[in-house]
Amino acid sequence: MFDITRQVTSVQRVVSQHSVVGGAQVSVLLRRNYAAPIEELWRALTEPDRLRRWFLPITGELREGGRYQFEGNAGGQILRCAAPRLVKITFGDSVLELRLAETDDGTGLEMMHSVPMEPISSGAGALFVGPGWDVDLLGLDRYLRGEHVPGWENSAAVQEFSRQVIKAWAAATADSGTADGDQIADGVAAASARFTPDLDQTTA
């Protein structure tokens, strides 16, 4: 179906924690390259007809300052939009920022999602956020390659992919120093139940 190891290792993952007005946030950062021109990747990320093919249907006033809603998911406001390099939005009670840049073999995408520290109270909150974005960015890659098949997200291969990225996010969280071992273990258990429900968790 796809090369799981190659897809897992194609993403750089970083977890950080920082203070904001009213509390603290945990941020997950994902970086990966796509074999597509920057304009093509930008359209896939911002045009409704393309977004629904690999992510979700979207409605709203899709311009800087406008409000949007993803079907069955978060909505918010478009804070910044500078085609074809930057889009920053509120995503429910969090903030999502996408940055694009040309590379020698396509376009680099940097995604940062910053979520409130509560109720997780540690950087282990990354395990509730990061693995889902990994699957979405995998879907974007498959869409750009013309390989996207409806319903593929529920396959055994995607769950195995998710199991491996959960381990990667656990390692990134440990490297960040934002959570202790017990908090990370709890995050891994919760992420495994959510993203790999059909796999034997004793081998996760």
Describe this structure in words.
This is SRPBCC family protein. This protein is α+β, with helices and mostly antiparallel strands. It has one domain: Alpha-D-Glucose-1,6-Bisphosphate, Chain A, domain 4, CATH 3.30.530.20. The protein has 6 helices and 8 strands. It has an 8-stranded antiparallel β-sheet with strand order 1-2-8-7-6-5-4-3. Strand 5 and strand 6 form a beta hairpin. The longest helix has 21 residues, at 156-176.
Helix content: 25-40%
Q: What is the third-level CATH name, the topology? A: Alpha-D-Glucose-1,6-Bisphosphate, Chain A, domain 4
Assembly annotation: single chain
Kindly report the name of the CATH homologous superfamily. START domain
Organism: Saccharopolyspora elongata
Protein name: SRPBCC family protein
Pfam families: AHSA1
Family: Belongs to the AHA1 family.
Descriptors for this entry?
38% helix; 8 strands; Alpha-D-Glucose-1,6-Bisphosphate, Chain A, domain 4; alpha+beta; 204 residues
Question: Could you outline the blueprint of secondary structure elements for this entry?
Answer:
Elements: H1 4-9, E1 12-20, E2 23-34, H2 38-46, H3 48-54, E3 58-60, E4 67-70, E5 75-82, E6 86-91, E7 94-103, E8 106-116, H4 126-144, H5 156-176, H6 181-195
Helix pairs in contact: 2-3, 4-5, 4-6, 5-6
Could you give a short description of this structure?
By secondary structure, the chain is α+β, with helices and mostly antiparallel strands. It has helices spanning 4-9, 38-46, 48-54, 126-144, 156-176, 181-195, and strands spanning 12-20, 23-34, 58-60, 67-70, 75-82, 86-91, 94-103, 106-116.
